[in-house]
Design goal:
single chain; mainly alpha; globular
């Protein structure tokens, strides 16, 4: 299953290559073959994902330095300049992944997850309602935070026995919920910064909501059969309001910073990792109230370095041009984004123009849910549930995610249609590639 899926993705990637320099094998640039080999290694050796990703990064970097160079220049200097262009988004992602790991533990220790069974339905519908909650949260929060909060609640209400198919659904709900909101996903925020109106992406929900209903139904039934929801909260549980206040404080800091930078100082958004820094300032300021669980950071750092390694690999691929804008190409980009960084894809789409931004937002935002490392939300959740780090298990148990993506996409086309937008600027500045945050 892992190998077949990776070869399908390998077949899609050459469509993105354009005038690549260097060796070409069967029409595929060697850069893509090395990247596909890295992804195949991650899929097959899921107990050694970090080592595989770092090895892939090392080999691809050496190849680019020695043979093809970078858009920024050749050799080691070109690599250094390329990394300089990437550092803001990479640092932002690292700050968010580690910061929201701390936030998730604050939320767990607040005991709120333990009292939720009082308010959730007792049968499979309780699991479904939890997915809806994650979906709604992600429209306003970062999808990493929404997925981690959802995973924390699931661990509590299901006695820490959470089905892999349901974990995949939590990631999918977080990505789907952010797809129609310019503050819910990095790609839609990019569109907003670049001049796309917020209402031009909101019809992504015409696909995201049906997709949620479909995969949510199957995932909730999977979870109920595997481990039913607790019927009653633990006796004597009291909410730690100070910790809950810290959670709200961190989220408000992230959202406020995101909105302020992107509305008032958009020209500075790629100069400093403002959102990641805001999260950590909020965490540090809250230490006098409650001490964070610092012991979480080593494992969270390993997961973060794994994702960042794949992000940097993707950023070095010779993706110079997208296929001609159409609903068919947007549909295909959803599958590509399950393994390929969706930020450069979105940047290229903005530069090229001619896309329906709501359709594209759904495709690249939700598409990463189909594989566990396809979005930062999936990688973050894998730090809480290491058992998801198997492409085969994710695909076998989370089959309803891909089905939801496909059916949701065509429902959106039927309801909202395909309404491509002409380039909204006379000259669209290039946005540097970066993290895959769905």
């Amino acid at each position: 299953m892992d190998k077949r899926w990776t070869w399908v993705i390998l077949g899609l990637l050459p469509a993105l290559a354009h005038a690549a320099e260097g060796p070409v094998i069967l029409g595929i640039p060697l850069d893509f073959i090395l990247f596909a080999a890295t992804l195949l290694g991650v899929a097959l050796f899921h107990h050694h994902t970090l080592s595989v990703a770092l090895t892939g990064l090392f080999v691809i970097s050496l190849y680019k330095i020695g043979f093809t160079g970078f858009n920024e220049g050749a050799g080691v200097l070109g690599w250094l300049v390329h990394m300089q262009h990437e550092w803001v988004v990479l640092t932002n992602l690292l700050g968010l992944l580690l910061g929201f790991a701390i936030l998730a533990r604050h939320f767990e220790d607040s005991s709120v997850p333990h009292v939720l069974p009082r308010f959730l339905p007792d049968d499979w519908k309780g699991a479904f309602v939890l997915l809806v909650m994650v979906f709604v949260m992600s429209a306003f929060l970062d999808n990493i935070a929404a997925a981690l909060i959802g995973g924390t609640v699931a661990a509590s209400v299901f006695n820490r026995r959470v089905h892999i198919g349901y974990l995949a659904a939590i990631v999918a709900a977080s990505n789907a919920g952010g797809s129609g909101s310019v503050v819910g996903d990095t790609t839609t925020t990019m569109m907003w910064i670049d001049g796309v109106a917020p209402f031009d992406v909101i019809h992504a929900y015409a696909a995201a909501i049906p997709a949620l209903i479909l995969f949510g139904f199957f995932a909730a039934r999977q979870q109920h059969a595997y481990q039913p929801i607790q019927k009653d909260a633990s006796a004597g549980v009291k909410v730690d309001w100070a910790r809950l206040g810290i959670v709200v404080w961190i989220l408000v800091a992230a959202i406020a910073t995101n909105v302020m930078i992107n509305t008032r100082f958009p020209e500075s958004s790629d100069a400093f990792p403002f959102i990641g820094a805001a999260v950590w300032v909020a965490i540090l300021l809250a230490i006098p109230l409650r001490k964070p669980e610092w012991s979480l950071l080593p494992d969270a750092t390993k997961g973060s370095v794994f994702l960042l390694s794949l992000v940097v690999c993707a950023s070095m691929m010779p993706v110079e041009k997208l296929p001609v804008a159409s609903w068919e190409s947007a549909f295909g980009l959803g599958f590509v984004s399950s393994v390929f960084d969706n930020i450069p894809l979105t940047a290229l789409a903005l530069k090229q123009g001619g896309y329906d931004w709501g359709v594209l937002a759904y495709a690249v935002g939700f598409g990463g849910s189909m594989i566990w490392f396809g979005s930062s939300a999936g990688v973050a959740l894998s730090n809480l549930f290491p058992e998801v780090r198997s492409v085969g298990s994710w695909l076998k148990n989370g089959w309803h995610i891909a089905l939801g993506y496909i059916i949701g996409f065509f429902i959106m086309l039927a309801l909202a249609g395909w309404h491509p937008h002409a380039p909204h600027k006379a000259s669209v500045p290039t946005i540097q590639s970066g993290t895959q945050v769905h």
